[in-house]
Amino acid sequence: MTTEEKIAELEKIAKEVREFKGLDIAKNATNAVPGEGDPDAQIMFIGEGPGHNEDIQGRPFVGQAGKLLEKTLMSELGLTRDQVYITNIIKYRPPENRDPFPNEIEACREWLDRQIEVISPKIIVTLGRYSMAKFIPDVSISKVHGQARFVDFSGQRYIVFPMYHPAAALRAGAVMQQFIADFSKLKNLLGGNTTEVAKIEEKKVEPEQSSLF
To answer: Among 63, 115, 148, 206, which residue has the least CB neighbours within 10 Å?
Structure first.
């Protein structure tokens, strides 16, 4: 798929997201938040759901958590947000930023799956437990954060790299330290560090389709 074809398909998905009214959170949203970034990105970040600032602007990760993500992207990887792709498990803000419900995750699943297929990133970084559970179910984020693994998804093999959500890092100093340290590991992966790749080979995971929300 050419870059132009990717852009067209991502715009088509975004249009569907914006026009969808099949969920209460979609009906009540100020703006839908489909996602944004480089259609040819090597890294795709998947968070949980939009917050207040995201709902107002219609863009993912533009609040305090987003500022931390942008800052760490630049300091640890030398990348701007325009050089990666950023989206969420759900595309509309839940009331009071509550956790997403299973039916909301399911309603948004096809759009996210299509975004992954279009971008075809080298690395999928999951931010928080809900996006992690899409690829690596039934594990605790405190046990597996910063541990990359191969996951077969929709006929493709991806490197999935689970991380804490930046909002969690803002709330706790210890999590912040782990968040920064995990970004350093991500830098090694992006650079093709053979030691990191060897570690991944030991952690291959092939979840059942039924576990992929």
So the answer is: 206
Contact 68, 43 (CB under 8 A): no
Q: Are 141 and 164 in contact (CB under 8 A)?
A: yes
- 3-state SS of the chain: helix, strand, coil percent to 5? 55, 15, 35
**Which residue intervals of 35-101 are DSSP H helices?**
52-57, 64-72
The DSSP code for 139 is -
Name the residue among 202, 133, 119 with its Cα closest to residue 162: 133
**CATH code of the domain occupying 3-207:** 3.40.470.10
Sheet holding 156-163, edge to edge: 36-37, 85-88, 43-47, 123-127, 156-163, 149-153
For residues 44 and 85, the answer to whether their CB atoms sit within 8 Å is yes
Question: What letter represents residue 110's amino acid?
Answer: E
What pLDDT, in 10s, does the model give residues 107-135? 999 999 999 999 999 999 999 999 999 99
